[in-house]
Specification:
The complex is a heterodimer. By secondary structure, chain A is mostly helical. Chain A folds into 2 domains: 55 residues, no CATH class; 59 residues, no CATH class. Chain A is 69% helix and 0% strand. Chain A is elongated and about 100 Å long. Chain B is mainly alpha-helical. Chain B folds into 2 domains: 119 residues, RNA polymerase sigma factor, region 2, helix turn helix motif (Rna Polymerase Sigma Factor, Chain: A, Orthogonal Bundle); 77 residues, Arc Repressor Mutant, subunit A (Orthogonal Bundle), CATH 1.10.10.10. Chain B has 10 helices and no strands. The chains are: A mainly alpha, B mainly alpha.
Chain lengths: 149, 203
């Protein structure tokens, strides 16, 4: 076996694997392969055969990303990412508090809550005292799944 | 399930060039530099989408995978260390792992639905209205065994070097070459009966 034959065998293996385009060949063997290709009709024949398959494969276009995908990815990038859920809740409460007047209105809101609590407590107490004993028992049983009616 | 992130974290040998061309950009992106983030997306989004699209044979799935890939990029960019792996190698590995997850789920769903092994028929997603050549080549690619298809996609379509492609597939360069040879031989067989028509339509 001569050196040329060996080189042709190796070029055949390279072309079988990587195709006809020297740009896809292993960098370390590219120059030697191209030199053989320039001198050998046999090498040119096997490269031509591989080129047909390459051209057929190249007919399939690459799937392209949409502009919306790019926008969505960049929206999540460092420094522009959406805040965490905890941060969103904290900011939501802060906004609500601000809309209610902030600390300046805090006293008024507290006083209103106190009055509302006293009034509703009194009304509820009166309503419960007017309920009959059997009625209260039925109310208590409503949450007891073991009781059959 | 092992991930590419795990590979990096545990120091598994991935080829790293002396200077990773993406290193500076990744660091700046990790620090919240908006132009760097945009540049990184513009450099790799099309490649990641194309790779996922050809691996999954489904455009919608490919876009979802691409989005997941970049979420992981954003998570890891701030702590990216030089020397573990080239960024592009890690990126393709993450993409491939996410594609494998989807292909596994797809097979499980097919098994649940049909009760028999997944067919070797072309994967769903081929648009019947598309060019006949494209549809036939996509069908042939879809019939390749998974690893052969991935090798062909990485080396032919993504135009990656053999060392990086082998690292992404976690095989030796010799094994990669074998996958490629068998894949291309099978493609020639699958397309042989139509080769004349195909070349005629292409010319």
């Amino acid at each position: 076996m001569t050196t040329d034959t060996m080189a042709l065998d190796r070029l055949r293996a390279i072309v079988d694997a990587y195709g006809a385009d020297p740009a896809r060949w292993p960098p370390a063997e590219r120059a030697a392969g191209e030199a053989l290709l320039a001198d050998s009709a046999a090498a040119q024949a096997l490269v031509a055969e591989a080129a047909d398959l390459d051209a057929t494969l190249d007919a399939v276009p690459a799937p392209q990303p949409t502009a919306a995908l790019r926008t969505a990815i960049l929206a999540a990038a460092p420094g522009r990412a959406a805040p965490s859920l905890l941060a969103q809740l904290r900011d939501g409460w802060r906004d609500l508090f601000g809309e209610l007047g902030g600390w300046r209105m805090g006293g008024a809101v507290l006083a209103a809550s106190l009055v509302l609590g006293i009034v509703s407590g009194g009304l509820l107490s009166e309503a419960l005292s007017s309920e009959s004993a059997p009625g209260l028992l039925q109310l208590a049983y409503l949450d007891d799944s073991d009781v059959e009616y | 399930m092992a991930t590419a992130e795990d590979d990096v974290a545990h120091g598994r040998p991935l080829p790293a060039s002396a200077v990773d061309p993406d290193l500076e950009l990744v660091r700046r992106a990790g620090a919240g530099d908006a132009p760097a983030c945009a540049a990184l997306v513009d450099r790799y989004l099309a490649k990641v989408t194309a790779f996922a699209g050809r691996t999954l044979a489904n455009r919608a799935d490919a876009e979802e995978v691409a989005q997941e890939v970049f979420l992981r990029v954003w998570q890891h960019a701030g702590s990216w260390r030089a020397g573990d792996a080239r960024f592009s190698t890690w990126l393709y590995r993450v993409t491939l792992n996410l594609c494998h997850d989807r292909l596994r789920r797809r097979r499980e769903t097919a098994l649940d639905a049909a009760g028999d092994p997944a067919s070797e028929a072309p994967l769903p997603g081929a648009d019947l209205q598309r060019n006949a050549v494209v549809a036939r080549v996509e069908a042939a690619l879809a019939q390749l065994p998974e690893r052969q298809r991935e090798a062909v996609v990485l080396c032919h379509y993504q135009e990656l070097g053999n060392i990086e492609a082998a690292a992404i597939l976690d095989v030796t360069v010799e094994a990669l070459e074998s996958l490629l040879s068998r894949g291309r031989r099978r493609l020639r067989q699958l397309l042989a009966s139509e080769a004349q028509d195909l070349m005629g339509e292409l010319r």
